[in-house]
Specification:
Elements lengths: L4 E5 L3 H14 L6 H12 L3 E8 L2 E13 L3 E11 L8 H15 L4 E4 L6 H9 L19
Parallel strand pairs: 4-5
Antiparallel strand pairs: 1-2, 2-3, 3-4
Helix pairs in contact: 1-2
């Protein structure tokens, strides 16, 4: 029998460490679990929140997001990271994560829920459309040269 799914805010080192393998699925450039925990802690000081979907003692999905404000959207929630393990996809985990973040946004008086996805992520785009998110533009990026500190 499968364990029930629970959503919990990640607030301590051990739980954050338990999230690394799932985040690595989305962000394969992250190679070190301790460096990941340190990065999440740095981002948390800037308002980043990490919500984990647990099945028993195993993390099966994550939503990393920030409550923000700008001149384009006003008060909004930006989802930085959304990942569900392949074995759990199509089981409603992603929907539950987005719904939980959406509820927090609404309860906090935020006007928009925003996320970016890769242009080639057709399956993800279909999923986002089904969740009520609409494409409104393109995201442009320039990789800047690194200056030694």
């Amino acid at each position: 029998m499968s364990h029930p799914l629970t959503l919990r805010a990640v607030q301590d080192h051990a739980h954050c460490l338990a999230c690394f393998a799932v985040m690595h699925e989305l962000r394969p450039h992250l190679h070190d679990a301790q460096a990941f925990v340190a990065q999440v802690q740095r981002q948390a000081s800037q308002g980043y929140r990490l919500l984990a979907a647990w099945r028993g003692e195993r993390v099966v999905g994550l939503a990393g997001y920030r409550l923000q404000e700008n001149t384009l959207y006003g008060r909004f929630v930006y989802i930085d990271d959304l990942i569900v393990l392949p074995t759990e996809q199509r089981g409603g985990v992603g929907r539950l994560l987005i719904d939980a973040v959406r509820r927090e946004a609404i309860d906090g008086g935020h006007a928009h829920l925003v996320l970016d996805t890769a242009l080639g992520n057709a399956l993800g785009q279909r999923f986002y459309y089904r969740q009520g998110l609409l494409a409104r533009g393109l995201h442009f990026v320039e990789t800047l040269p690194q200056v030694a500190a």
